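QA checklist item 7 of 12: single-chain prediction sanity check.
[x] sequence parsed
[x] length recorded as 283
[x] structure emitted
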Amino acid sequence: MTMKKIYMVASIVAFLLLFSSWIWWGNTALELNEYEMISNRIPEAFSGFRIAQISDLHNAQFGEGNEGLLSLLAQTDPDIIVITGDLIDSRHTDIEIALEFCESAIEIAPVYYVTGNHEARVTEYEDLKKGLEKNGIMILENEKVQLERDEEYITLMGIHDPSFTTDYLFGEAESVAAATLSELQNESDRYTVLLSHRPELFDVYVDSQIDLVFSGHAHGGQFRLPFIGGLVAPNQGFFPEYDAGLFSKENTTMVVSRGVGNSIIPLRFNNRPEIVVVELIRQ
């Protein structure tokens, strides 16, 4: 083999090693993204209130006992933690990983949880639910609670994933979500925060006049392309509109987390797993 060929082979091997290392890092190095939500509807007492979001864990583990994920979560100094579905993965269900994570997370701050489509697919959901309740996790299955701070309030709502009652791919998820929100809302509701797994239902949230929505499900589009964004997302197909970040329309803002785990596609590209933190700021 000539020196030229040896150089070419060495260059290819070096490139493949570097590329593989970058892919591995991009799937294991957690990222923290923080946003400010500014509104004159936010009560004065809640100005500075911090909400940390975890979405789409899918049984992922970042260190023993999810130490890496929990450590970064604690550093965000949240007032509450919200989990927006798919704690488990229906293809290799392990509710113990989810329960162990939540048992530690609630030592950081109160935890509120809504289901995702993967919870709707497994018979173990009732066991997961019982375990979460035992650990003090507040499960919002088409429910709302009033969060109080210095005698002022905001409304926190959570909707059960529509696939519990309708077909995941071909069901009427929009009408299910709209009907649920219509039942939950009333004129006395204050600034309203909604936990809902599905970002593709954004227009439903807008029509329901929700102030702030936390969502997930899209996995950031799985493969993120420069200047384009996510490549593919469940229930949105190729080049999804709601893949990651902030989306605003009329009086509603939606935060879409890229999530921390994977499901059908085991790898991400240019799409690090993330924790999201939103700080409420009164205008």
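[x] summary fact logged: The longest strand covers residues 31-39.
[ ] second reviewer sign-off
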